[in-house]
Each structure stands twice: as C-alpha cells, then as structure tokens.
Fold this sequence. Notes:
Layout (H helix, E strand, L loop, with lengths): L1 H11 L4 E6 L13 H4 L11 H7 L6 E5 L12 H10 L3 E6 L6 H9 L4 E6 L4 H7 L5 H17 L6 E8 L10 H7 L2 E8 L20 H17 L3 E4 L18 E4 L5 E2 L11 E4 L2 E4 L13 H6 L1 H8 L14 H4 L8
Parallel strand pairs: 1-2, 1-8, 2-3, 3-4, 4-5, 5-6, 6-7
Antiparallel strand pairs: 8-9, 10-11
Helix pairs in contact: 5-7
Amino acid sequence: MFSRLRRQLDKFGSPALDWVQVEVTTYCNGSCVYCPHTLMQNSWANRHMTLELFNQLTPFLRHVDLVYLQGWGEPLLNTDFFEMVRICRNLGRRVGFTTNGVLLSEETMQMFVELQVDIVAVSLAGTTAGTHNQIRKGTDFDQVISNLERLRQIKDDRNSPFPAVHIAYLMLKSNFDELKKVLPLARRVAASQIVASNLTLIIDSKFSEEAIFCQIDRTDDYRNMLEEIKDRANLEGIIFDFHGPGLEATPSVCRENVRRACVINVDGEVVPCVLTNPILSSDYIFEGRSVPITAFSFGNIQDESLTRIWNNKEYADFRNLFDIKLGGMQSDMPQCCVACYKRLGA
Length: 346
Ligand code: SF4
Ligand code: SF4
C-alpha cells in the first residue's frame, strides 16, 4: 500500500532527461563482425523486454524528451515494439530507434508514418555492398538502401515528415574512404542526419587495428576529411556529426550524456551507458591490453521507480564525476570508465 503510494508520488518528481535509452531486446538477426552480440554468442542471453516491464517504466518518463528504443539487439524483433512506440506517443514523448534495416517491410514502414515515429536511424558500415556486407554480416546493403528508398516514397505519398531518417555510420580503417560517398547516399534516402562513430568496445584484439582513433599518425588526415564532409553536408542542409577521430587529453569527458540520460537494459537495470550494461560479459581490449568488463547497475525498475534510482546518492555521485565544474577525478571513477575510449572523446 505504502509502496504503491510512493510510486504514485514518484511520478511527479520524475527526472528531466534528454533521453532514456530502453533495450527492448537482446535478440538480433545480424552478425556484425565487431559486435559483442556476435563475439559473445556462446554466453549471450537472448531475451525481449516484456510489455509489463516497459509499462513499469513509462509513468516515470513525464519529463523525458526522447525515448530511444535501443540496446544490444535489433528492436524490430520484439513483437511488442509498436505497442511500446504507441505508449510513448500517447504520453507525448518523442520516439526513436536504430535498426540494421533488414526488417523494414512495407507494413512496418507504414506503421512508422502512422505512429509518427520521430527518428529511424539505420546502421551502415560502408557505402558499397562489398564493404558493408563484409562487416555487417547478415544484413544486405542493397536491400537496406532499397527499403529506405521505399520509406522515402511512403513519406512523400503521405506527405509526412515522420520518421526522420538518420544514418549511423561505423567508421573503421577499412571503410573510412567510403565515407566520401555518404552524402549522395543520404540524399538518395532523404536522410537528414549522419553520425559517424568509432568502434569503442573492442572485444577481439584484431579490431584494434581497425579502430581509427588508434592510428595517431593519421589522425589529422581523418579529421580533415570529416571536417570537409561536415562542411559539404552543411551546405546541403544535412547534419553531419562525428566522434573523434583522435583521443582527447582531457580525462573526464564522456561521450555519453551520462548527466542527463540513462539506459534501461532488457531486464530493467538502470545503467549510465550501454558499455556498463550487465548483459555484457567477457573481456575487452583497451590500449592494447585485455580488461574485464565491469558492468554495474544503480537499481532495477522492477524494484524501484526510475525517480528513486536516478536520485539515489550512489548514482548522483557517479554523475558528478562527469561534471567538469565539480572537477570529477579519474581516480574516483569505476574501472570501466577509466579504461573507456568514450571517456577520451571517441
Ligand atoms: S545489428 Fe546491431 S546488435 Fe545486431 S550484430 Fe549488428 S551491431 Fe550487433
Ligand atoms: S566513461 Fe565509458 S563506461 Fe563510463 S559512463 Fe562514459 S561511456 Fe560509460
């Protein structure tokens, strides 16, 4: 009785966040060569978030700008996906997600427009089939692009700006030059934004060579090309954002928006970023050495409201480590943050 009342009251004090990322599934139909889902397949726990669990979260999203339905998996595989979108839209929340693009059927894309999904980001790792398909195994570049062309047509036919299409491009040494062709591709599918990001969680040491921020000697070449693409994109009204490519000397700046966003994993655990998600196990490579993943959670929405978890002292102290004004100390950070390329701006 008392706990029910407390939960009711907690709705009113729910945190004002830029976004909450919700891992609606850990199943995936892709086998991207660098992804923990592929590389940890022997110990991977496949499951979908239930609608019941999702509903435990949503009352605490009153002051959240964007609900991003995304974790380590392909969101469209969860058969409750559109119900989750509908719940968020009914609450007046913006909704987005990232997909590998394989399941973009006619019916699915019509639903995006119908439900006014705000953002559909599609992952690419090349601008040619030969390169993309080698890296993002289990997905087919030509099929993904043709799906997106159809989505563009559906939006035109229904005179709808929804959803905005974003391209999420994973930059590797082997596909970097193909970024030169990303703008024509974005025009072709009417993408309004491109985000070029680095491989920041390296599970297999052979991918250390692929991560461009490790190539210190070529950092300026990379940066020059990225700046050039950004300038051209700007002229075309396309937002081009990129991470890195070099690592920063500043020790306490995390690429993730940990002070105004959080991740809810498939089991309801509240974590600051996808890299601390307890679904991950095994070791990863940081600066050439093997480091165990130290996943942790600040609470579970099955036990407590998001409001209480967000406001607990341990979580507040953690966030303060990333407040430059408070001078967060690297020595106070958990090991996963000390040994993290995202903290170094990647
Ligand atoms: S589609 Fe996403 S979750 Fe699936 S294997 Fe590729 S990167 Fe991993
Ligand atoms: S530093 Fe890395 S592990 Fe720590 S919160 Fe940021 S992204 Fe996550």
